[in-house]
Amino acid sequence: MKKYQLKFGFPLGVLQEEVAELFKEAGYKVKFDQELQKVEIGDPGIICLFTRPVAIASLVERGLLNAGVSTDASVFEAGATKVKLISELEPGKSIWGKTKVVLAVPEKSKIKSIKDLQGKKIITRIPKITKEFLRKNKISAEILYSDTLINESKVGVIADAIVEFSRIGNILKAYNLKPLKTLFESSVILIANKDALEDKCKKKKIEELANSLEKAKSAQEQKLKSYTPWSTSRLDDIDLKILQAFYQDGRKSFVEIAKETKLSPVGVKNRVEKLINEDILKIRGLLNIKKVHSVSAAIEVETDNETRSSLIEKFKKSPLVYHLVKTSGRYNLIIGIVAPDLESIENFIEGEIRKEPGVKHIEVNIGELPIIPDWCPPIF
Predict the structure, then answer these.
(1) Distance in Å from the first CA to the final CA of the chain
(2) What is the tens place of the pLDDT at every residue in 32-70?
(3) For the chain, what is the mean pLDDT?
(4) Helix residue ranges, H only, 87-165
(5) 237-277: CATH topology
(6) φ, ψ for residue 252 (rounded to 5)?
(7) How many helices (H) and strands (E) would you count in the chain?
(8) Residue 130 reports pLDDT greater than 90
């Protein structure tokens, strides 16, 4: 079995979450161990190396990996001419957006344009791309190569700027950096070593994997199409007026809403039943937080994926939590809570979050109660 075991590169970093979701959609059981830098996908015929996309491109090029998920920018950076593109893995419309190669500087930096980089220090893990960019713009700057996990932390300390891959900018914002220039956009791709494709068993395994991921990609695209924005024909202006009416007062009668929408009460009833049947509308009671709480907190948590999942499941039922978001970047979970006092927030953090062994770092921002917009889509 080991003779035909496929050696596969799974991307670490900004692509990790999206690629994991794609594999899960394809039926693989993805399991990360962040501390050991390991990933398993539940297929005994595929052994994964968890590393960055540039390293994957280089290792596939050298034949040390048979295949892997990387990006076209990483293939260029690695100078990988012997790899073969198997398939494009990004949905036509991704919620994450394209991976960008960006030049970023501190928000308060005196560097305002590319010309201001003259004589400066730029830290990067992709020196080839950086050198080419500087050459085209006739800029002489010192390139500091660093392959550590968070190069952003070094900007403003040992470097004046950074050239780095960025998915949605969370890490840049966390280190008070702003994009100065997008060098180019990069696509997520499945690549294979040309020699590996000469082996019938490995070729078959790669093709099976590619086929599964292509189907998963198509399924994701269909899901994206089903989540049509409200500005399209799925919900018209009357639907929106009905939703707004219920948001303002869930006890409004069909007769009252009919006057606002210029429909008959029966017409309103039919529309409401349709929205409920399509699982677009749920009518439920809302807590007036101003009557029971006085303070809120936005809690950013850095944790491993398994702990994040368990925290989400736990906090779905917490009476204090009103907001849960999975994010990429250093902090991969944002928790919004409301509480009667600061002591309650401290107890929540210490008793419900910090004690979890998989939690690495926490950042807390205390504020007033959340400001609820006058028109807020009633979501569930």
Answers:
(1) 47
(2) 886 778 899 999 999 999 999 999 999 999 999 999 999
(3) 86
(4) 127-136
(5) Arc Repressor Mutant, subunit A (1.10.10)
(6) -60, 140
(7) 12, 16
(8) yes
